[in-house]
Amino acid sequence: MNYSVIDFETRSACDIKKHGISRYAKHFTTDVLCMSLFRSDHKYPLLWVNENIELDTFNHTKLKYNRENIKYPVISFEAICQQTLSADWVIAQNSMFEYEIWNEIMVRYGAKPLPVEQLFDIKAQLAYHALPLNLEDAALALRLTQQKDMTGHKAMLKCCKPRNPRKKEKEENPNWENHIYWHDKVKDYEINFNYCCQDVIVEKMIFDNLGKLPEREMKIFRLDQKINLRGVPVDTESIEAIVNTIETYKISLEKEFKEIVGNEVNTPNSHVALRKWVENKVGYQLPSIDKNAVAELLEKGILPKDVEKVLAIRSEIGKSSVSKFSAMTDKVDTDSRVKHWSVYHGASPGRWAAYGMQLHNMPRDSFLPEEYEFVTDLFKQGDIDFIKLLYGDIFSTASKCVRGSICAGKGKQFFCVDFSAIEAIGLAYLAGEQWVLDTFAQGIGLYESSAAGVFNVPYEEVSKEQRTVGKVAVLALGYAGGIGAFASMAKNYNVDLETLPAIVLPTAMTAELDRDWGAKYLARMFLAKNPDSMSFDAAVACDVIKQRWRAAHPETIKFWKEIEKCIFAAIRNPGQVYSYRGIKYKKDSRFLKCLMPTRRVIHYYDAHIKEKTDEERSYITYQSMKVIEGTTQRKWSWVRAKRGTWTENIVQGFCRDLLADMMLRHEEAGFPIVLDVHDEDVAEVGKEANFEEFCRIAEIVPGYAVGLPIKAVGWEGRRYRKD
Description:
It is a single chain. This protein is α+β, with helices and mostly antiparallel strands. The chain has 29 helices and 21 strands. Strand 2 and strand 3 (46-49) form a beta hairpin. It is globular, with a radius of gyration of 28 Å. The model has no long low-confidence stretch (mean pLDDT 92).
C-alpha cells in the first residue's frame, strides 16, 4: 500500500472553532496558503505554495517568497494533485478538514474531487491507542525523533486570520472597516511553509510508528466519517427563535445583575471579581463558585438575598444546555444540518465523543414532540412573561427543547433504538453473574430485584422510591464503588440520602455495621474526607446498601480481583499473557494491552506499578488524558488506576463494541445513521422504512456475545426525544 500524508495551511476571516469545518471551508474568505505532502515512497516532503494569494487585497499585492528559505522542494499544483490522488490512502491529522478544504478550494482551482473512502485520520490512530490527539503532545508522548515546530506554529497563527489595520492604512482607505487586512510579513509565511512540511514529517512518523487500525475498527471509522458528512438535521427556525428570546431575557438579567453589583463586577462570567464580591458580602472565603458549588450554596439558603440573587443569575446564564442552541446556529450548514460533530474513539475506552454541540450531554428532561411545537411557538412570539407563567424558569424551559430541536429533514423521520440496561447485563455477562442474566432474560426488572435485596422486601412489594435506590445501586456499585460512588449517582436521580437511614438501618445487622471495615468505620473515613456531604447515618446507610449489593454479586467481586491480578502479573512479566474469563492482558515496551472478547484492544500507555509502601498498597499508574481539577481542560498526565477502573473500562468497551456493531448492521441494511448518544443508535429514514426490521437488527447477538440477553427498545418520530 502506498500513501500520501497531506497538510494544508489556510487563512480565513471565519472562526473555525466557532463555525466548524464545513462552514469554514465554504466561507468566501477561506483560501489555501500552501499544501505539504509526504509520500510513503519518498524520503522527504514536497510543498505547493498558492501563488494566487494576495498579502494586500486593497492594492492586490501578491505574495513573493524566497525559495532558498524553503527547506523542501516546491512543486506545481498539478504535481501535488497527482501525488495526492494517485495514493491508495490519503492521510492527515483531522482528515475531515483536509477533505473539506480539498473539495471546496482545491477543486475550485481545478483539482479532481478527493473521495472520502481514500482518507485516513492520524487522530483516529492516536485515539485508538489512547494517546493525545494533539500533534505536539502525541509526538512528545511517543518520544519521536521529530517534533512539531512550535516556532512555526506561532507564525501560522499570524498568517491564518485577519490582522488589525494600521493607522496609515486607515488614513489611506476611508472604507477600511469593510476591508480585510492580512498579515504581510513574508518571513512569517516562509516559516509557515516550513512548518507545514514539518507537520507531515511528524504525522508520517506517527502513522508508521503505530500502524493501521484493525479491519473492524476501520469499518467503524469509515462509518463515523459518513455520519459526520451527513450531519445532524436541526430545526433552524425554532432554534433561532429560542436563541433570540433567550438573548433578550439575558440582557434583562445582566441589567439586574449590574444594578446589584455596580462597577465591582463587569459580567456574571467575571469569575475572580464575582468571587471576591461574594466573599466580601458573606464575610468568609469560598472554596469555589463553580456550578456545583453555587447550586449547593443556593440550596442551603444561608446567603444574603442580594448574593443569592446574583449567584442565581450567574447560574441561569451559565446553563450549558442552553448554550447548545448557540452552538447549533453557529455551526449549522446551508442545508440545516450540523456536520463534523462526531469524534471516533473520542472517549475512553473507545466510545464516541461529540465536538461543538456536545450531543452526548443533553438534558434528560425534554418536551414530547406535541408540547415542543406549542412551546417553540411561544418562543417565536417572544412572549417571555407567558413562558415564565406557564413553565417557570425560561432557561429550563429552553433546555427542555434541546432534544426536540434535532429534527429529521422534510419527508423523513428518525428511527431510534436503545439497548436496555446494557452496562448492567454486560457486567454480569463478562463476570459470570448468571442469575442477573437469567433475571433479565425472564423480563424481571433488574432495578426491582436490586431494591428487593437492599431493603429485604419481596420483589412484588418494591415501591417506586425503592426501585430508584435499586437503580442507583446497580449503576453505581458495579465498578468497586463505595459510599462516594453511591452518593454521586443518587444525586443524579434526585435520591435524598437523608431518607435512607430510616428505611435501611432498622434491618442492618451487627456484622454489617460494626465489623472491621464495616459500615460505621467506612462512614467515618468517608466523612473525614468529605465533611458536610451527608449525615453519619446517611453514610452508614449507603455503605450497608453497598455491602448488600456486593453480597448478591459474588462473581462480580471475584471479577474485579482476578482482573487486577492479571494486570499486575502482565506488567511484572512483559510479553506474557494473563487472562480471566476471556479478557487477556499483555505488556510490551510501550503499552499494557487488554484484548477484549470482541477482539478489540484497549491500550494503556507506559503502565507500571508503584510498589507497596508503609502508607499504601501497590497500585498501577499509566499516562492518559486527564481533566485538570477545577477546569474542563484535559492534559496528558499520569493517572492512578483504581480497582474498579479496569472493570469499568472492560464493560464500557464491550458495550461500545455492541453499539458499534449494531450501527454497522443498520448501515449495511440501508438505515443511514446520523446520531449515536450513549447506547442509542439513530437513523434518518424515509416514510417507507420498516421500524420492526430496524429493531430486529438491533437485537442480533454478535458471535463474541453468545448467551447475552440483548433487548432493544425504541421509538420512531420526526423529533429527537428521550423516551
